[in-house]
Hints:
Elements: H1 5-14, E1 29-35, E2 39-45, H2 47-51, E3 61-63, E4 73-76, E5 83-85, E6 87-94, E7 97-103, E8 111-118, E9 123-132, E10 139-148, E11 156-157, E12 159-165, E13 169-175, E14 183-190, E15 199-202, E16 205-207, E17 214-220, E18 228-236, E19 240-249, E20 252-262, E21 269-272, E22 282-288, E23 296-304, E24 307-313, E25 317-323, E26 346-347, E27 354-355, H3 362-365, E28 379-384, E29 392-396, H4 399-402, E30 413-416, E31 419-420, E32 423-440, E33 443-446, E34 449-455, E35 463-470, E36 475-485, E37 497-507, E38 515-520, E39 527-535, E40 545-559, E41 566-569, H5 585-589, E42 594-598, H6 604-607, H7 610-636
Parallel strand pairs: 2-26, 29-42
Antiparallel strand pairs: 1-25, 1-27, 2-24, 3-25, 4-24, 5-14, 6-7, 7-13, 8-12, 8-14, 9-10, 9-13, 10-11, 15-23, 16-17, 17-22, 18-21, 18-23, 19-20, 19-22, 28-41, 28-42, 29-40, 30-31, 30-41, 32-40, 33-34, 34-39, 35-38, 35-40, 36-37, 36-39
Amino acid sequence: MKINGNILAALVLAFAVSAASKAPLLFRFTRTLPVQSSGWVKVPVDPVTRGHMTPDGRDLRLYDPSGEEVGYQLLSSPVSKGAAEARAMAVTEAAGGWNLDFDLGPEVTAHDAFRFEFSNHVAAQGCRLFSSAGGSSWKPLAAGDLFRLGEAKDLAETVLAYSPSSDRYLRLWWPKGAGFPDVRNASVLKAALPMEPPQRLGLSFQPCEKSAGTNGYFISLPGPGVPLRGLDLRWSGPEAAAYRLYVAGEGVWNVVAEGTLALGEKGAARVTLSVDEAPEGRLKLELSAGTARPPVLEEVFGEFEPQWLLFTAQQSGLYLLAYGNAGLAPPRYPAAAPPVALGAMALVSPGPEKAQPMPEAPARSAGPGAPMPKQPFSASWPVVTAAKPGQLIRLEIPGEVYDVAQPSLGDLRISCEGRQVPYVLYSAPSPALVTALRGVAPAPAGSGKSEVSLPLPQKSLPLSSIEMSSNASVFERSVEVSGQQADARPGMEDRASATLAYGDFVCPGQGELPCRLGLCIYGTRGLSGLRVVFSDGDNPPLPSLDISVWRRRHVLIFFLPAGEARLLAGAPLLGRPLYDIASLQEQLLSLPAEIATLGGLEGARAAEPTAVKWALAAIFAIAGLVLAVLLARLIKHSPQS
């Protein structure tokens, strides 16, 4: 789409800094910096501030007391990670098992995980790890299951994580039921060594799907670009709990940490994370104590990697940080290393964050862009929101839209008074729950198999994954997931099914958390339901299962026009729109937006342009006339009986 030159110029003007006044314009957030003297200055960038910037920090600007822009460097504290050998000292018989003692050496550094490699394929339930500074007095460090059922990554768990410790000696209690441990090697993972202490922030959370004995929660993060180092959890109920933590990516929940936690002296338990990238959006947490009454989460605190803004102050006075702006090019500042160490720089703590509404830019009040395409649309929904014209809007696409729109969503249009409203189409990393079954027993399906059927609420949802969990004891099942075509004829359902995923559902033993299998099922369209088949062999079907189906989440980001806005879909031949605003996706996602929903579905007549309706009427009239002429000729030349 080609944007009017005046509108584009106004958009650029609205997202710029006035050179004449040398003062920040249209920044959503500001913070003051009281600098006492000239020289190098370091400013801590807290997670909330970082979350209000664009992921790459390109919208951050610094101004001196006279309004001149000041160059800066934005950096994270370096950390060092690695492994250190744990030398085996002795193996002694103990009550119910064996004690394996290890020495980390006299120059031990802080460590937060024990990696125990063994060659035999076993499942050791309830292993316990202890530590000692001198090798005589031992204290509990961690507990969990260790197993190796195969060489694949998802068939082995050989690491016990714990809070950072500097103790030299470790003792692993290995249960006798798992057999004598055939040690391949042992090591500890070095804990992160930050240059500065982590920054702590309380996080909001809300309950999500739960099963028998397990509570689930979504934990909200401050925003993209904020590296998360760990979580402190507080819960009510039992002192110890098993946990499983997920990070979202590409519409799938991926497990990043699991194990057993115990509330410490301060009533909190620590989860140490090792995530390559800063997680975006939210996390998912499961808590269980192996009882009918699972732990209830009370508080969550996140610890984030420290980030710093460094600059040279030419004068004392009140400096200004400004951020929360879309459309700015990244600044070009010198990247030379500071001549002084970070610890020797003057520390300046910023004042409280001041938020202000984004002023209405001329481009937003000038109305929508190009005219609507001439193709007819089969569905229309009014956009419902309490926002004012010119405000940034976030509209999550509900399930019913997928049944009408193209699989690529390329035919979506936002219409206002016959013209298009430019938007950004964003695929969120965290999935949306489609359907869930709790405590279901698979039905026998003949030939040593059992199955579960899951109907879907809409036929064209962009499914992304299926998760299943069970509290049953030791088992191993091959699993096949297939999709049932929505247009299958009665009696032809088997021929209309298509295999979507295979997997092996393996449980090494009954623990406090249910055993879990997650499978990706991308690229599914036109399905009325899913069928999950378990190969039981000579075993009975699993007694109880929890199954959840997830889909991708798509979000439209746009500026609300002055007139009535509608979402249109259902134009099979329409191509994907090309809007200039799409280049601002990452910046717009970092800005606060008002939430919008869709009203009731309306038919094609409300969505079709008047010219198209008249054209269709003319086509039908001509077609009827041609058929009438052909019928008259057939009657005239038909043979007499």
